Amino acid sequence: MKRALLILAIVLVVAAIAFFGFAPGYVDRDMNPVGKPPPYEASEVARDFHQSLFVADLHDDLLLWKRDPLKRYDRGHTDVPRLVEGNVGLQVFSAVTKSPWGQNYELTEDGSDSVTLLAVGQAWPVRTWTSQKERALYQAEKLHAAAERSAGMLVVLRTRADLEQFLAQRETEPDLLAGLLAIEGLHALDREIDNLDVLYEAGYRMMAPTHLFDNELGGSNTGVERGGLTAFGRRVVRRMEELGIIVDLAHASDQVVEDVLDGATRPVVVSHTGVQATCETKRNLNDHLLRRIAENGGVIGVGFWDTVLCGDSPADIARAMRHTVAVAGIDHVGLGSDFDGTVRVPFDATGLAQLTEALLKEGFTEMEIRQIMGENVLRLLRATLPAG
Ligand SMILES: [Zn+2]
Ligand 1 centroid to 1 CA: how many Å? Predict the structure, then answer.
């Protein structure tokens, strides 16, 4: 009997080591694939021009995965070394706090949650197992801890003053990366508006009211009802603007986009999206909304992944950007990779020169490419971050 218990104990320990030690890596590799592995070829002209750009990307889910942001991996799409190699100057890191099983772009119901399994399987603190606010706080802690260990290589921006200081320093030290914290889905408030201030204190400066499903703030573009902002949602958005938190309308239902824009006093972003004109899916923006976001002064981050592009090449990204520029204007288009967001993208962060090359081939001028690759996002951050 004793012997049987001992064997059972050994089996459980081995299973636990396998689950906590190896499974997260397999899941990560499986869920964040690339079209082709590195190295990524690009012409010398494109490569040189790419190195002269300030590159800013509006959406990356790296913090969800069991990876040290400072270490280089051969799985997933990003880490600080690969972002620096791809000449990214500013990366928005977004926290995911709930994701239903079987999520899809037609109809995703609230209810089940795969992030609980990730939190347990990756051995996140117990406080994160039942609270979405704690999951967001934990992901912010991960980024802050990495910045502290990075000897100044990674800087987390909280204010406009931080941004200006970072840009001045990067003039002479091109291997620096700025991170900005974001959240997709304000179910992360655990239904308490006061938690907005808690998340702001933790460094969050960009937030999307909804993610894949309708929540207590309003409808998702892949949800069931796809309604507008609720009374709670209106209060939260108003408080976000007071604090200097950028409203992100990625994943929002069309009606939530309209409702936020009707009352907006600051420019918004759509951090990662495609456009209906080049890929018809409910997840993507139609031309009417593209125009409204441009009127608001906002920036639309065009995604890199197959299901919003209806394609899987850098040329497909450039094609979606061409349409967005045609409808919204050159001042309102940026990058919204969705790196590490359980999507397939053509390249990891080290391959971004391929996008610059695709934009040159698409016929954009160098000035236009500078704007798309980062300058428009800088303008928006200067207009929206708290002064500090
Ligand atoms: Zn997303």
Answer: 51
